[in-house]
Design brief:
By secondary structure, this protein is of the alpha/beta class. The protein is built from 14 helices and nine strands. Helix 5 (112-119) crosses helix 14 and helix 13 crosses helix 14 (319-347).
Amino acid sequence: MKATKVVLLSSLLLGIGAAQAAQYKFTVPIVTNIDSYNYQSLLVFKNIAESYSNGEIAVEIYPSGQLCGNAKECLAGVQAGMFDYFQTTVPELANYWKPIESFDLPYLLPNDRVAECVYDNPDFMAKVREKVLQNTQNLRLMMISNSGGWRNFATTKKAIHKPGDIKGLKLRTVPAPIQQELVKVLEGAPTPIAWPEVYTALSTGMVDGTKNGIVDIVQMKFHESIKYIVLDGHAYMGGAWVMNNDKFNGLPDHLKKVVLDAVAAQNQYLRAYPKWKEFDAYEEFKKAGGKIYSPTAEEKESFKKAAMPVRENYLNSGGAEGKEWLTAFEQQVQACESKINSEDQAALK
């Protein structure tokens, strides 16, 4: 027993010594706890960055808002060089560069394969990275990955099968204007509520439902109140990971490559996680009495048609640059759909 304690203590001291000896330290805040997939993905990043740099890089992760309380504070810290790497969302980046908001329009992305194809296009993403950097001064977009699957309408008392079923329902939304406008267009009442308060809002009847993926719903125990989910998939929950640009550019080339490899491995984890966890989450939801409805092709098309005013309003208010980037994004979606269809046809031969 004493020998085991000595080994553990020695390992701990070696780890501390390695972090102190590292020439480059990455300070990474995260506003969620250690059980979240974002935190776990950072362990993948940390492992690759530290192992393949031979100790030249040390990654220190601070969960549960230890360094900054919300995304706005954390992003400001990365900009200022207080922190080095952070996960935000596409709508939050729109506070700095509005045209990226167009990527969040409802029903633009049909499935994971297309979404991953779009966000894996190096030429397209290089242009997006350049624009984000220009408008934030020091935020370097490293990837847009998955942050929990797809947003679906989930309700406490009334099942939704078609757009008209949303009329009159109070639905929790994120503060993003487009997500709120979608609910308005469908004649519901959007109700922005902070994430830590959603459980109480659902359980007390303050809202009639929310717009979230099944993994988040079950992890946060929202299914204690939510009884219905319609798999309309109106929004891909893209997680945008940004790094302090000066920090990245200050690395020697061989360590830049290590960091890019670490980001790629982290991306693989984040994309796989919701696919892997959805089965258990749906099973848990059904055990709690929840009912899941998958719309027919015709019903899915009716949701897309009902949501079209959101796109039209964006085009009217987004200006020339907003229109340009929406067009570019839609072209990428179409190109990816064509590529995947060709791959599927070849696989069927």
